Amino acid sequence: MTVYFIGAGPGAADLITLRGARTLARCAVCLYAGSLVPRELLAECPPDARLVDTARLDLDQITAELVAAHAAGHDVARLHSGDPSVFSAVAEQMRRLDAAGVPYEMVPGVPAFAAAAAALGRELTVPTVGQTVILTRVAQRATPMPEGEDLATLGRSGALLVVHLAARHVERVVAELLPHYGADCPAAVVAMASRPDELVLRGTLETIAEQTIAADITRTAVIMVGRTLGAEQFSDSYLYSADRERPA
What is the rounded CA–CA span in Å between residue 199 and residue 206? Predict the structure, then answer.
């Protein structure tokens, strides 16, 4: 039997992939983070599926549930918000499953930064303005960041930064990035992306912290900083250029 790490998407139940929904529909056991995964998705599970909310479980307890379900001959859906490849804590779960000899697969999902970009109506990579997107977070009551991955260092690149898990520390984010991007650099905060209570704030590095604090946004949000967020004057992409040779 197999454990499936399924990306549930950023919040809206209909943003799970077809593969994710079909996998969920055939798993006899489903472990999900109740505080992050929309409950509507659980309707995709078989009617008699065992549902386990992992919000109050530690890593060892979660692993025990996965191993026990496998031993009982059940496929297991492990639902994670967003996409399991980014800030999902699946690496340590997979390491423990490897040690226990339990097979697993990953099913991609729509990541939070993609839903945030959709809410903003923006392409994050704009020709001649910015072609690099950095996904990162801040270390505050969490695992320390590796050396060289602090915001100040990343900010020297000038690339579009998408900062996860940092809304509560927006003033610190702004302070570290101001020397590298400037006060007039476009910035945005998107909370609850794709959900009915989605909230979008647009501004600059000079104004975004005040807006975020006034809106009382402290979690389930991404902070975006970079010139592509406000790009208006830029060259068209070569992809669709009339000068580009195309097969007959």
Answer: 19
**How far does the chain reach from its first CA to its final CA, in angstroms?**
49
How do residues 75-101 score in pLDDT, each as one tens digit? 999 999 999 999 999 999 999 999 999
Query: How crowded is residue 104: how many other Cβ atoms within 10 Å of its Cβ?
Result: 17
- Look at strands 3-7 and 29-32 and give their pairing: unpaired
Q: Return the exposure string of 27-59: e unless at least 16 CB atoms fall within 10 Å of the residue's CB, then b.
A: bbbbbbbeebbbeebbebbeeebbebebeeeee
In single-letter form, the type of residue at position 86 comes to: V
Whole-number Cα distances in Å, 98 to 51, 143, 191: 23, 23, 35
Contact between 42 and 32 (Cβ < 8 Å): yes
- Packing angle of the helix pair 59-71, 90-100 (nearest 10 deg): 40
Is 0.85 surpassed by the pTM of this model?
yes
What's the token pair of residue 224? 């975006």
Dist. CA 226–CA 124, nearest whole Å: 9
pLDDT in tens, 182-224: 999 999 999 999 999 999 999 999 999 999 999 999 999 999 9
Give the closest residue to 13 by CA, choosing from 36, 30, 46, 29: 36
Phi-psi region of 139 (alpha: psi -120 to 50; beta: other; left: phi over 0): beta
> Other CB atoms closer than 10 Å to residue 183's CB: what's the count?
11
